[in-house]
Amino acid sequence: MSEEIKQYSNDGVQNSVSDEESIENKYLLFRLGDELYGTPLLGVREVVEPQAPKPIPNTAKHFSGVINIRGEIVGVTDLRTRFAHKAEAGAHMALMVFSTDGGPMAGLVDRVESVISLTEKEIEHNPNVGIEVHREALIGIGKHNKRLITLIDLHKVLQAHSLENNRKLAA
Questions:
Q1: How far, in Å, CA of 2 to CA of 58, rounded?
Q2: pTM of this prediction?
Q3: Is residue 28's pLDDT more than 60?
Q4: How far apart are CA 84 and CA 68, in angstroms?
């Protein structure tokens, strides 16, 4: 029997995707400021409404603190600050939660847009760009409906941040 994954577009319409369709080529689109980004859907554990994090001293500028999601402590990274965008409060902000080796981490974004599928032909894997994340976290530039989308594996970005913090705490 085919399981279904429920997806919601930015207009709130629910779509069902059967597991026969490849989830590996699906990306969750989100905005930081006016810029459009995408991350592999497979790595996203959940998307939740933001809550005020408890600050932790002596952490990176973009690390906002920790929150409690259903009894689990989750680290929060402000991706707007991490990727040099203005960090302004907005009505559509969201937290995208990922499981990492160091524990769950969430990335704060201005808006979650939708889920799209991209073929390999629609992704430029070796764009000539300077980016301040681990090079292996940059998937490439996606081309979809005449829009360019920066594709970043946020699981890898947050994984690196989580492991970096654990090393600092152990020292």
A1: 48
A2: 0.76
A3: yes
A4: 26
